[in-house]
Amino acid sequence: MSLLSVLFPSAFPALALAHFVALLSPGPDFFLLVGYAVRYRMRDSTGLCVGIAVGNGLYILLAIIGWGILRQLPLLFTIIELLGALYLLWIGSLLIRSRPQTLTGADARSTCPGFGKQLLLGLGSSLLNPKNALFYLALMTALLGPSVTLLQQTMSGIWMTSVVLCWDLLIVMFIGLPQIQRRLTRGILWVERIAGGVLIIFGCAIALRFLQSIVV
User: Fold this and answer.
1) I want to staple 51 with a disulfide (CB 3.0 to 4.6 A). Which of 34, 60, 123, 214 is the partner?
2) pLDDT tens-digit profile of 143-189?
């Protein structure tokens, strides 16, 4: 038995592919990153990336050690979902109400939240999206199967968390490229407002779905 087969389950390639394809689909975290990185670039967006990755890692941990919790406590899932809707509405409103500001200079750096605040912002965005929990639950159970070992689950979780972090860093790195920044200089306010509008749409959709479930 090779070391790779001990560390990773046989279904790992399928899991890695499914996870990466999901990352290509823009969600709340993506639009939060775009709205943030377009103003502060990579240097001042790292904490946000780390926070999102940590949030994903915590849901992966939940899927490994207590994947039945959300299924057994539907009220908890609903509460997290509603908190997530409010959070997205709040963040979206902040982006929409952002003021014009240049992309370069000390002003942008001085108004940028510190690493700790960025970390909490990204963590909140990730944790208050219960779809992340369901997504990782499906990956860790349906794809890996019942015979997967704890070590293999752990290695798969580390892999997915690392990919989330690297992907988010690539996004803000791309947005921070000088040529991209020059193209965005005139449209920064609109980029932020569009990102904020999309986040508000996500939040309204979650709230609407909850109201529909009550009516039904």
Assistant:
1) 123
2) 676 677 888 888 989 999 999 999 999 988 888 777 776 666 566 66
| Nearest-angstrom CA–CA distance, 14 and 167 | 18
The secondary structure of residue 113, as a DSSP letter, is P
Helix axes 46-66, 115-127, angle to 10 degrees: 40
- The closest of 66, 60, 35, 51 to 126, measured between CA atoms, is 51
Q: Is residue 68 classed as helix, strand or coil in its secondary structure?
A: coil
Residues in the chain with pLDDT values less than 70: 1, 25-26, 42-44, 66-74, 76-77, 80-81, 84, 98-112, 130, 141-143, 145-146, 181-189, 191-192, 216
- Taking the C-alpha atoms of residue 99 and residue 90, their distance in angstroms, rounded to an integer, is 16
| DSSP class of 177 | S
Q: What contacts 64, CB < 8 A, 6 or more positions away?
A: 140, 150, 153, 154, 157
Distance (Å, whole) CA 200 – CA 207: 10
Closest CA to 165 of 9, 3, 19: 19
Tens-digit pLDDT profile for residues 4-17: 788 888 888 888 88
CA distances, 38 to each of 49, 93, 118, 164 (Å) = 14, 17, 15, 19
- DSSP letter for 143, please: I
